[in-house]
Amino acid sequence: MAKYEEPLVHQLIQVTKKYLNAFSESTENIPLERYHYALLLIDENGESLTQKALAKLLEVDKSFMVGMIDYLTNSGYVYRETNAEDRRQHVIKLTEKAKEIIPEINQSIHTVNQKAFGNLPDEKVNLFYEMIGMLQTNLNAHNTHEIAIDYQNRNLST
Length: 158
Description:
This protein is mainly α.
C-alpha cells in the first residue's frame, strides 16, 4: 500500500501529454501550432462569436484571448470584424485558409479521440465525460486561481 495518495493531476497530466503527442503527430501536415479547437468553435458558432464569448467558451481570460486571436490573425486564420450592433465588440471571422483546414482539424481530433478511447463501449465513454464534468463542478466550488497553460504543437516525450 502506498504511503501517499496520488494526486489526480498526475494522471491527468500523463494523459494530456500522451494525447497532445498523438494530436501533434496527427496534425503534422496542418501549418498551425496551436489553438486548433478555437477555429472549430468559431466555425461551429457561425462566425458570430465575439472575443468575449469565445473566451467564455474556452474558459480563458481576456489577455490570453487577445494573444490567441493575435496569433491566429498573424498566422492568417482569423480576422476581427467590428460588430455592427455594438461597435465596442469584435466578432471573430475565419479566413479561407482556416476554412480549408477545419475538416482536417476535425478529423484529427476524431482520430485521436478514437485512439484514446480504443474499444471502450459508448457507455464508458459517456461515463468518462460525465465524471470529468462532475470533477469540474466539484472543483469550481472552491476559490481557485486560474493557471494558464500554453500548449504548443511539438513532440512531447512520454
